[in-house]
Specification:
The protein is mostly beta strands and 85 residues long. It has one domain. It is built from no helices and six strands. A six-stranded antiparallel beta barrel has the order 1-2-5-4-3-6. The N and C termini lie close together (11 Å). The relative contact order is 0.38. The model has no long low-confidence stretch (mean pLDDT 93).
Length: 85
């Protein structure tokens, strides 16, 4: 499933990558899940993002990287694959 990186947040640890889901469908994370080839924690949240019309944007998710050292592998606008396994 493809996602586009919208925002990168890092303050100490952990490191978060906010990404927009580009393809329809459900997903579930496991301890083996990867985003763009990078290990992520098996939890995800939806930040409070708003569309221009004022409605909630439910296509953006916040992924937690397993290690902040992988943060340089991401850039805003980059399209990555979620491997939920």
């Amino acid at each position: 499933m493809k996602f586009r990186i919208e925002y990168i947040f890092h303050r100490e640890r952990p490191a978060y990558v906010f990404a927009r889901q580009l393809e329809p469908g459900d997903f579930a994370l496991t301890v083996n899940s990867r985003l763009g080839g990078v290990s992520i924690r098996p939890s995800v949240s939806q930040p409070r993002t708003i569309k221009p019309d004022g409605t909630p944007d439910l296509s953006v998710f916040a992924f937690v990287l397993a290690t902040a050292d992988d943060l340089p592998r991401f850039a805003v606008g980059q399209v990555v694959e979620l491997e939920a396994q």
